[in-house]
Amino acid sequence: MKNYYIIDFDSTFTQVEALDELARISLEGDPEQEKVYQEIERYTNLAMEGKISFRESLAGRIALLKANKNHLDKLISHLKKKVSKSFDRNREFLKSNSDTAWIVSGGFKEFITPVVSPYGIKTENIYANTFLFDDKGNIIGYDADNPLSDEGGKVKLLRELNIQGRLFGIGDGYSDFQLKESGLIEKFFAFTENISRQSVTDRADHVTPSFDEFLYVNDLPRAISYPKNRILCLIVGDVPEISSHILKRDGFSIRVKDTFEDKYTKDVGMLLLGPGVDISDEQLERAAKLKTIGYLGDVKGHMSRSICSQKGIVVFDDKKNKAHNAEFIPRRMAEFINNGDTDQSRNFPNLLLPKKIKGHRLLHIHKNVPGIMAQLNNVYAENEINILAQFLMTRGDIGYAVTDIDTNYDKGLLKQLRQIDHTIKFRILYK
């Protein structure tokens, strides 16, 4: 049976609620603008939380809008810049699944269609409401016969369509959860990249902080190899807010703590530390998933760089106490996770890599002993791998080999690379 992906639009495919944004545009300059906008936003939230009917919310918002077709043109331009980052990253998945990736929304086709069409969503697979206009182009209402204008509209629509396949619902609101409640979809994924509503997440089969996460848990083709929301970034000590903001905006799962608590040791993937924070040898030895550490100060004397090197942990620090390093260091950490860059690391070979990954990028950290590259390339040769680019740097006892390869390979290759003698850490990137 085919998989069908039933995707919400507002606060899911896009970062915002379109009618709320239309209100900002149509009411610009109105002395009552903020008051009216807050009332429109109130209607939106009440419906999304299931506290009033969708039709009541829709009618209330339309009456307050004072919008026309010219305002819609501005709205469309705005929404195209507000597509959720994880959907934008995975444009190729949507295009490859254009027959089964559907938009089902209580929003309006007039602004949804031009925003989602560039992503390969077919017009016939966009289900939404439609506006009614007067002869001057003013919005005066909506088609009340459309099932999506009514309470439980998504359920009514899918019952009418009677789709034969496995349906997965992705959305942020109560109307999306109703699909799961109705039994019409196999699983409901509460999408929280833009907003998280507890009344929805508590009832979801899975909370998905990004579309990357949805694709990952369902083992579907995706733009990045591993969802960043699954990488725990622990921030400890006196760290400026801008530092955590940079990493959070990049999609990492952030925890801010006064101390490095033992309960995080086995799961932490990134550590950003304030001045004077000490990390014990035992903690470093136990941190099996730790990939990079950023230190806002001179790391010397506060942790063992040799243990970090032995375990393949890349360290970036701030030994000159420069003000801009509160931003620079978290960005270097993110660039290592995202691209494999070790430029300006304190303990690793400094490698600055091309930003665009052709195919898949394989990162192999190993002890700097003779014959490693021969072993690596023998594995590639035995598997008839097409190498697109290869980079190697060494520093002391550490070797760092980065290989971009064509995406057509047997997954057994990865196991072979991990088993090469003197391998410290191996990771795969693609985006």
From TrEMBL:
User: What broad class of enzyme is this?
Assistant: hydrolase
Which cofactor does the UniProt annotation name? Mg(2+)
Q: Mind telling me which InterPro entries this protein's record contains?
A: ACT-like_dom_sf, ACT_dom, AHAS_small-like_ACT, HAD-like_SerB, HAD-like_sf, HAD_sf
Instruction: Provide the GO biological process annotations.
Output: L-serine biosynthetic process
Question: One GO MF term, please?
Answer: magnesium ion binding
Give GO cellular component annotations, separated by semicolons. Answer: cytoplasm
Q: What is this protein called?
A: phosphoserine phosphatase
Reported EC number(s) for this entry are: 3.1.3.3
Annotated ranges, domain ACT: 361-431
